[in-house]
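[step 3/7] inverse_fold.run input=structure_tokens len=451
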């Protein structure tokens, strides 16, 4: 740390760090960018990392997982927020008239796989977890009741009253089939809407389009829920109004119908019959309005928050488990370990091979995308990023760090190589001081492959 502070290039290093926004595991690049005049071949401008501190340029890792890099995940969260919000009130290329389109915030839940410890509140008071006057005793000799009033951070929340009774297989298979269940839900919703409008399914796109943005949330018990913004548009997306018959009530009825109608089947395995999985009975459908109970800020904030979280929030792991890993080394709680072992065990069965449960054991079987949007929901993360990069480039040009060239007459040649990632321990402390990002959690310093 002292060595870094005393170096002549400390200011440049600090400026690189500020440009990464406090990324915990920046990527180190070595290379150069050269601008040539296409007509004369003359070199107009050259940037090389040779003169940078340590001979490298540090760029943000751009992960969306808050458990790996809080700074980059925050950028992802903020972008997701903007994108979801634009789909609700307009902006970023979406017209403001979208506000008048019927829009719902829908939560699709998982069914129960056994009683779990829960924190219940009633009138501001925490209630006993599972108060049962005549509680049964399970075949494993456990009384199926719990009189405790669990605290918010009680690690037992979401864990089964009896792990031996809990349906780990069902839980893992539900996660594995949740993306298929979602797809069937969306298809069924389109069919229900076509029916409501007196149309054949194939005629629907000429009248109405379904736009959605959804995010998966891991519950403490280790199953995914989906939260989705579902909006009705006209045939050309948010720029056209939906037909008059397509009201909020029509959409509400269609969502309710579709959620109850669909199922997905896991193949028979282990001498057990096939398993039919459906959404849980808890279905929440709420209209999003500018002045009602559920505002567009609340919805955008909610979806953006879950877009940066994954299974690590239920005490599992945030990276892939390799076949050489032993689970004992990870210091997992029993519930997480059983969920992961169930994935590994079922993953080895040929009947379930296509669910790829071994590859996705760290995600407790779920292999879908966390945060997805239909094509015409609003702007895209790519467009938001491109706009920010253009802004940074314009800024470099106005402050004289980059020359202003006409792109048609200039040839740009760039050469980059990966040279490692992360910070040394001393650098970590300085980064925290410079950017105010916390140091908690693991950090990696990966050495450059060549010196
Ligand atoms: Zn980062
Ligand atoms: Zn309990
Ligand atoms: Zn039991």
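[step 3/7] decode complete -> sequence:
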């Amino acid at each position: 740390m002292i060595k870094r502070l005393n170096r002549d290039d400390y200011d440049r290093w600090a400026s690189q760090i500020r440009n990464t926004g406090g990324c915990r595991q920046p990527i180190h690049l070595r290379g150069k960018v050269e601008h040539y005049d296409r007509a004369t071949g003359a070199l107009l401008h050259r940037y090389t990392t040779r003169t940078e501190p340590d001979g490298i340029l540090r760029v943000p890792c751009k992960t969306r997982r808050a458990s790996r890099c809080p700074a980059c995940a925050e950028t992802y969260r903020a972008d997701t927020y903007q994108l979801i919000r634009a789909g609700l009130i307009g902006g970023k290329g979406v017209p403001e008239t979208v506000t008048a389109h019927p829009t719902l915030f829908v939560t699709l839940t998982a069914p129960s796989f056994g009683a779990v410890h829960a924190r219940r509140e009633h009138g501001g008071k925490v209630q006993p977890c599972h108060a049962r006057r005549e509680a049964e005793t399970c075949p494993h000799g456990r009384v199926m009741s719990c009189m405790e009033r669990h605290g918010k951070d009680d690690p037992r929340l979401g864990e089964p009253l009896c792990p031996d009774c809990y349906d780990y297989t069902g839980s893992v298979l539900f996660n594995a089939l949740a993306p298929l269940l979602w797809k069937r839900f969306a298809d069924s919703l389109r069919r229900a809407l076509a029916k409501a409008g007196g149309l054949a399914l194939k005629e629907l796109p000429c009248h109405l389009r379904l736009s959605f943005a959804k995010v998966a949330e891991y519950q403490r018990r280790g199953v995914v829920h989906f939260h989705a913004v579902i909006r009705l548009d006209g045939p050309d997306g948010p720029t056209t109004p939906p037909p008059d018959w397509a009201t909020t009530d029509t959409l509400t009825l269609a969502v309710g119908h579709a959620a109850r109608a669909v199922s997905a089947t896991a193949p028979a395995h282990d001498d057990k019959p096939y398993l039919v999985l459906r959404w849980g009975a808890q279905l929440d459908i709420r209209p999003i309005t500018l002045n009602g109970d559920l505002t567009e800020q609340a919805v955008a904030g909610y979806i953006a928050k879950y877009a940066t979280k994954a299974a690590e929030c239920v005490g599992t792991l945030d990276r892939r488990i390799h076949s050489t890993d032993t689970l004992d080394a990870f210091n997992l709680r029993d519930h997480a370990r059983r969920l992961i072992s169930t994935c590994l065990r079922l993953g080895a069965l040929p009947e379930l091979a296509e669910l790829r449960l071994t590859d996705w054991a760290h995600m407790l079987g779920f292999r879908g995308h966390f945060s997805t949007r239909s094509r015409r929901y609003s702007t895209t993360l790519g467009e938001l990023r491109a706009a920010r990069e253009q802004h940074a480039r314009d800024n470099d040009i106005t402050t004289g760090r980059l020359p202003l060239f006409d792109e048609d007459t200039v040839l740009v040649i760039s050469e980059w190589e990966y040279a490692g990632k992360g910070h040394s321990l001393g650098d970590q402390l300085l980064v925290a001081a410079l950017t105010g990002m916390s140091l908690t959690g693991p950090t990696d310093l990966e050495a450059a492959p060549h010196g």
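[step 4/7] annotate
The CA atoms of residues 30 and 56 lie 5 Å apart.
The chain has nine helices and 13 strands.
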